[in-house]
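FIELD: query
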Amino acid sequence: MNRFQSDLLKELIDLISPAGVGDVSISITKGSNEPVVEAKLISRQLSFWIYEDGASLLGDGIDIRFEAESHREPSALAKVFLEKVSEVLKECSK
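FIELD: result
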């Protein structure tokens, strides 16, 4: 796991944990070219994938991907990803 993945995972856990305490599972798998971090918020049926240079948010009717090519800096990608996660969590709680 690289620094981008590690830092983003920490921020993601801080964001999603209050939404489902004890409801978060995390796994790290070997993708075809890179390690991939998957976090799941089980009660909301949401999956968060963190790649070496990107991220995605998947759920029922949700498939949002954040690619490095669309952002100047990894920190910008992380910020936009976390903002979208926050937005989706708010929508799920309505």
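FIELD: remark
The mean pLDDT is 87.
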